Amino acid sequence: MAVMQAAFDPLYGEAWTRSQVENALLLGGCRTLLIDQHGAEPAESAPAAGFALLRATLDEEELLLFAIAPRWRRRGLGARLLARALASAAEAGITRMLLEMRRGNEAEHLYRAAGFEPIGLRPNYYRTAKGDRLDAITFERRLD
Questions:
Q1: 0.90 exceeded by the pTM?
Q2: How many CA atoms are closer than 13 Å to the CA of 141, on its beta-carbon side?
Q3: Which residues contact 106 (CB under 8 A, 6 or more apart)?
Q4: Among 11, 77, 95, 111, which is disulfide-ready with 116 (CB 3.0 to 4.6 Å)?
Q5: 2-142: CATH number
């Protein structure tokens, strides 16, 4: 939760509450991946530098949340965490990973570099804290 609060700009309202995260994990099909500042899975009591929250259904998985704490960005941790998410999904038999993001999200370059391609657009889907409307872009990465 500390990473999410630091990583997501309140203007966009993208951070989930603790209750939302807990409910997603209780529903089943969801998993989390953590990364520390060195690119490894954090030790039991060590703080995370980033995380991914994913939800699988049949042979598809959706990247619901993905964040690297601002102080650890620009060190390749996002690419390492995303590569780990893709590899573990493929090992589990997932054939397609999806994600949705707002237009203008600075992480778009990371997703495109990992092979994600835009497949859909939801015009004016998101609303900022100031009331502006932003498009949502759906991306896909084939794993088969």
A1: yes
A2: 22
A3: none
A4: 111
A5: 3.40.630.30
